[in-house]
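Dear colleagues,

As part of the handover before I leave the project, I'm documenting each prediction I ran so the next person doesn't have to rerun anything. This entry is a single chain, and its sequence is reproduced below.
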Amino acid sequence: MSVGKVIILYFKEHKFKAFLIFFMILLVTIIALIPAQILRIIVDDAIGNSKVKILAIYSIIYFFMYLLIGIITFIKDIIMLSTSQDITSLIRCKMMKHVHQMDYKSLVSSDSGTLEAYFNNDVNSINELFTSGIVNICCDFFKMLGIVVIIFLYSWLFGIIVLLILPFLVLFTSFVRKRMMRAQLKTKSLEGNVNKVLLENVENIEQIKVNKAEDYSKEKYSLILQNHFKTAQTSNFYDAIFSPIMQIVRNIVVISILLISGFNHNIFGMSIGMIISSISLITDLFTPIEALGMEIQTIQKSLASVKRINQFFNYPIDEKMNLNSPSNINITFKNVSFGYKDKLVINSFNIKIDDKEKIVFKGPSGAGKSTLMKLAMGLIKPSSGEVLIGDIQAFDLSDEARRSLFSIVYQDPFFSDGSIYDEISLKDKKITKEKVREALNKVGLDYIDDLDETLISSNYSSGELALFNIARVIAKDTKIVFLDEMNSKIDPITAKKIINLINENTKDKIVISINHYGDILEGANVVNIGK
């Protein structure tokens, strides 16, 4: 997938909107050329021949042409705004789908600030590509082409002069474009670092205040902001010099026309009305070129974002080979080794966990307990050896098979402000409201009356949130349950209650738990990791 493919996909499904955009661009371009022609008629036919009635009529037409241009431009902008919002929404949906399919190892190696920059800053820049970028450039290009053609019709000599000027403008524009592109790419890369540090400060604000680390955090953030500012200033510099140079060149051309025509008004073979119309056309010719300054910056910024999002889409995804569920419910590690970069975490690990067996992995931090759990869930692939769920490689399990086999209790429950029913069922249609109600009753949350009420995390204690998490596992009723430090952040009484709930509701299940301390599961085999 790429941004280009998403855009093509959108316009294939919205052919009429694509035609409408093209038609509006063409209409705005054609109508924008009419006022100069009306001005020529006013000067040559009405003023020159003292025809007051014709002057009044064409003056009104001249006014209404600009009014019509404004109305059509407004309609075009509304259409483009709607289109850009649809496209950016589609891009975000495709990006989120890609996140869900991403290889787990690649996902965890991407910091949250960079991912947020992809979804927010970069996608918003692509939105500008349609609202104030490429469409405006198309309008300006066709307008410039029409102006050059009309000037040639007035005077071939004057047309040649204009054509001799245009290469200078094209070269200067290309010079600005290349340098702005480099600056925009670097700026986009630094935005991820800015977001990352901001999120770190927000998430760890309590520790920062307790440890009086405000100055340290501020200095670190200020340094990153300064680097980002310097890079952005490079782009802003080229943007700042572009428009003034265009205005100087335009004024030189206009003054030259007036001076040459003043000495010999027949040199170009044009009437007074044509000369005035030509000055109007020259002004109209340079106006879109001046606008290219902002449009180029917008387009370069957007193209930099397109390039970054395409890199995001190139992050590897899990290639799930097996669409079936295993015939037997057991977990087997056969000579499994796994390492992150140069660090070997698991080395030749062997164990078989039979159906209904309980296993507790214990060991110091960094020993590989969480890695073993991720290997068992098929989130990561062993460097060597194999992890089997029944007769199927864990890494090759399809998402559907994984969902039906596994459930997990994390130490930090995940809730996304949905209804209580949605948060417990996770939109699984097989889990009815009756099952959710039964699960809540089992964990002691029977006082909750309305399952359609929004589950707002701040309204509940950490213990209650942990019970919601257990209710989710009970309602899902899978054959394999993982417990990831699920009692490390709650009080001992609630932790004891949760252990009892798990003992009671997982008698027919495989349970794999990670514990540094606390109660051990009933009848569990303890496996010491790192020894």
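The chain has a mean pLDDT of 77. The longest helix spans residues 52-101.

All the best with the project,
I.
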